[in-house]
Amino acid sequence: MTGTQPEPTERLFTAVPLPEPVREFTAGIIDELSGIVEGVRWVPRENLHVTLRFLGQCSARNIPTLVDWMEKAARQLPESVEVGGVGGFPSQGSARVVWVGVTDLSGGIEKVYNVLDKGAGRCGLGREKRKYRPHITIGRARKRPVRLTPGLDESSGAKTIHMEAPQIVLYRSDLSSTGAVYTEIARTGPGPVHKL
Predict the structure, then answer these.
(1) So what's the pLDDT on residue 180?
(2) What is the average per-residue pLDDT within 172-191?
(3) pLDDT of the residue at 2
(4) What is the C-alpha to C-alpha distance for residues 141 and 78, in angstroms, rounded to an integer?
(5) Phi first, then psi: what are they for 159, rounded to 5°?
(6) Distance CA 196, CA 194 (A)
(7) Is residue 111 left, alpha or beta, with left meaning phi > 0 and alpha meaning psi from -120 to 50?
(8) Domains in the chain: boundaries
(9) Which of 64, 67, 72, 189 is most buried, with most CB under 10 Å away?
(10) Dist. CA 78–CA 105, nearest whole Å
(11) Cis peptide before 6 (omega within 30 of 0)
């Protein structure tokens, strides 16, 4: 008697891609911080994005449903978000993740996240319990959490840049010994516009 084969899955997440000027801006912050903060594996510039909803291991049969929810979420996309400022999760004093902040006073990006989170739940992936905070992950602590000293934000992340009309992208993340490789699966929303 043969057992059924487990259904193949892919490691997926949704994100807002960065226009090139915003990618350059964020990479500049990484360049500054890499000379100040030790013990961090910095994210390669080609992998930078505004994190929306990490989905984890998903069956390929869920992808059309996820894309439907992405299209619903895209209707809530804000006209503009502000990128800038440096912080850490779970805290500045004990950061496992170092990020650049994303501010949306309209609340649109949080609505986008909520729709995507609901869609993830409908696909059997569970709802996220933590409060969403829009950000661009720029580094992860290598071994132990790192301390982001007071004033670091002022020296390295005081400048800001605006990013208008972003899109939502569904990415596959393939892990390797040299780091993650992201492959675009689907994209919804209008084309990106940016301005300083």
Answers:
(1) 85
(2) 83
(3) 53
(4) 31
(5) -75, 155
(6) 7
(7) alpha
(8) 9-195
(9) 189
(10) 9
(11) no
Q: Are 148 and 92 spatial neighbours (Cβ–Cβ below 8 Å)?
A: yes
Whether residue 195 has pLDDT greater than 70? no
Instruction: Provide the pairing of β-strand 9-17 with 179-188.
Output: unpaired
Which comes out higher in pLDDT, residue 86 or 129?
A: 86
| Residue from 88, 183, 185 nearest 140 by CA | 88
Q: Which residue has the higher pLDDT, 4 or 191?
A: 4
pLDDT tens, residue by residue, 122-158:
888 888 888 899 999 999 999 899 998 766 655 554 5
Helix (H, G, I), strand (E, B) or coil at 151: coil
pTM above 0.85, yes or no: yes
Q: Is the pLDDT of residue 102 over 90?
A: yes
Judge whether 75 and 165 are in contact, CB under 8 Å: no
- Reading the block at residue 123, the tokens are 């696909």
Secondary structure percentages of the chain, helix, strand, coil, to 5: 25, 40, 35
Whether the predicted pLDDT of 196 surpasses 50: no
- If DSSP states are collapsed to H, E and C, what string results for 4-35? CCCCCEEEEEEEEECCHHHHHHHHHHHHHHHC
For residue 87, the cross-strand partners are: 99
Residues 6+ apart with CB under 8 A from 31: none
Q: How far apart are CA 188 and CA 68, in angstroms?
A: 9
Query: Which residues, 6 or more positions from 45, have their beta carbon under 8 angstroms from its beta carbon?
Result: 23, 26, 27, 30
